[in-house]
# Entry
Amino acid sequence: MLHGKSVLLIISGGIAAYKSLELIRLLRKNGLTVRCILTDGGAKFITPLSVAALTENKVFTDLFSLTDEAEMGHISLSRETDLLLVAPASANILAKMAQGLANDLASTVLLATDKPVMIAPAMNVRMWQHEATQNNISILSQRGVLIVGPDEGDMACGEYGPGRLADTEEILRNVKIYFGKKSPLADCTALVTSGPTHEPIDPVRYIANRSSGRQGHAIAAALANKGAKTTLISGPTSLPDPAGVKVIKIETAQQMLTACQKALPADVMVCAAAVADFRMATNSNKKIKKSNGKIPVLEITENPDVLATISKTKKTRPKLLIGFAAETHDIIPNAQLKLKDKKCDWLLANDVSEESGTFGGDNNTIHLVTADSVENWPQMTKNDVAKRLAERIASALIK
# Structure
């Protein structure tokens, strides 16, 4: 599939640049011709000589090289290739791409190209999560730029979180998908719920839970990365919006149900949100105060069940409906009862007891429960859970 195809690899600055050498090796091993542009920042971490040795091609670095520009070299570089791949893609080069800057060879080539562009971001977790970077990613996604990663893990700076360059094998897999002309879920629509809900008591207080939204957001990102047209309906979280995903923000359970019903139909729906079971029977529009030391009585009522309601809606019920069972004890038996009660297709059960560290934490341990089986997954990061689930969804929908 890759023989005869060519990639122009742009290596920008950052410690992850050293991984581009392994990426070059993998790309060439799979039959691709690779040429490289090495930015000034990238050249602080790896040398043009090492890149040239692995590609067996000249390495380009200077926009104003008389030799290369005699025939408008930046134009030919941008167009005489099948795919432009930026790996690692630093926050700086993402900003240049989003704003259309062209002040060096790499950014000029990216602005002048008429070929598809794929990026693999890599940067410090705070830089990745910064609103400016997320806005730039959103702009690039809307323009059709293909995005791989980033992964979550330990950083060279000592911090932990999203921002690591995607594994080189994962980048290669996405290149193969591109040249295969079809992502696994390219013809599918996906709906994901995430985060907690906030049920107001009065203008100051609310009923909520400890959900961070990390798992739901990671699932939405994984489905979008597989090509699904993805909508994420999220309760209040501090997380950035996943790239390439339509995000609808809500606060209450009733708002979440209404937003889900409006977003349907969809091929697959993953209900990962921790929806509050109860809300106030009456919501005070004034702060409730103590009166002569008496504790006020709060009357609560049951919230709508988003998963069960969607399951019963025959006309718009997704082909594959997946729920989560957040349990503190008897994890699998409770999940099996919930699967039967909610009438969904799959249920992902997990332990959210305080000692598990699941709520607000980085890891999760999943039990995939279906009508006739239980599949126990080992503990892994929430990003890895999302990727594994996306693979399973693709296998189930594409037969």
